[in-house]
Design brief:
alpha+beta, two-stranded antiparallel sheet, eight-stranded mixed sheet
C-alpha cells in the first residue's frame, strides 16, 4: 500500500507518489459475459429498449433519471440517437438468452489524467432486475475499467433519495463517501447527491466477489443463489486476512 511522506522543506504531509501517465478513454466496445453482453448503444436498439424500459408500468424507473419518462417511441428514438452521438460510451445490455435489449448504462465524467470515471445512466428493465445479468453487467464494466484501462477510481453517484440505487451501490461493493447537498437541479427539483466509489486497491476483492458469485456453483437447479454477493465478498476478505 502506498504511504504518505513529508515535504522536505515545509514539513507538511504529502500524498503518495503515483504515476502521472493518463489512462486511455473508455471506448465503445463490446463486453461479453455468460448472462448478458454489453454492446455500444445503436439507433436500432430503440424499439426493443422502449418496450423493455418504457410505458406506464415502467415510469417509476425514470424517477431519478436526468431524462424521461418517454411516452412515445419517436421521443425515445430521439433520446437514443443523442446517446449514440455522445462522446461517453453508452452500452445497451443484451440478454444472452433472448438476444433482446434489457437495459442501458454508461461510463461518464471520464477524467483520463486522474484515471477516474463514473458508471451512470443505469436503467435496468424488469427482465434484468434481480437477475445474475444485473450483477454481470457491473462486473464486465468494472473489469474493463480497472483491469484493461487501469483506472484508479470508479464512481457511482445517485439522488440521495434513491434508496434502491444506494443499496445497489453497496451490494456491488462501492463504498459510501458522503453527501453533496444541493448538488444539482434535476427536473426542476433540488437534488442532494450520494457518492460511492471503488478504488483500484479494492477491485481485487470486489471483482473476485462478483466473479465467484456469478459462477455456476453459486446457483441451484432453479437458478437461486446459494450465497449472497456480500456474503461471498466477506468470505474472500476473511480468507485474505487469515
Amino acid at each position: 500500500m502506498a504511504t504518505t511522506s513529508t515535504h522536505p522543506v515545509v514539513d507538511r504531509p504529502l500524498g503518495p507518489l503515483v504515476s502521472t501517465t493518463p489512462a486511455s478513454r473508455p471506448q465503445k466496445v463490446t463486453l461479453a459475459g455468460r448472462f448478458i453482453t454489453l454492446v455500444p448503444v445503436g439507433p436500432d436498439h430503440a424499439s426493443e429498449l422502449f418496450a423493455a424500459t418504457c410505458g406506464p408500468a415502467n415510469d417509476l424507473f425514470w424517477t431519478y433519471m436526468f431524462s424521461g419518462p418517454f411516452l412515445t417511441l419517436s421521443s425515445f428514438q430521439d433520446h437514443i440517437n443523442n446517446l449514440v452521438g455522445s462522446t461517453d460510451p453508452f452500452f445497451t445490455i443484451i440478454s444472452n438468452t433472448t438476444s433482446k435489449p434489457v437495459g442501458l448504462l454508461s461510463l461518464m465524467r471520464i477524467e483520463p489524467s486522474h484515471r477516474v470515471c463514473e458508471v451512470g445512466n443505469i436503467l435496468y428493465g424488469p427482465a434484468l432486475q434481480r437477475t445474475p445479468g444485473a450483477t454481470e453487467a457491473m462486473y464486465l464494466l468494472g473489469r474493463y475499467v480497472f483491469e484493461e484501462l487501469e483506472y484508479r477510481r470508479w464512481e457511482w453517484k445517485c439522488d440521495a433519495l434513491n434508496s434502491p440505487s444506494r443499496r445497489a451501490a453497496q451490494r456491488f461493493g462501492f463504498q459510501p463517501e458522503g453527501l453533496f447537498r444541493q448538488h444539482m437541479i434535476v427536473k426542476g427539483r433540488s437534488r442532494d447527491t450520494a457518492w460511492f466509489a471503488v478504488v483500484d486497491g479494492e477491485w481485487g476483492i470486489v471483482g473476485d466477489g462478483m466473479k465467484e458469485w456469478l459462477g455456476e456453483g453459486n446457483f441451484d437447479g432453479e437458478g437461486r443463489q446459494r450465497k449472497g454477493l456480500e456474503e461471498v465478498r466477506a468470505g474472500i476478505t476473511a480468507q485474505q486476512k487469515g
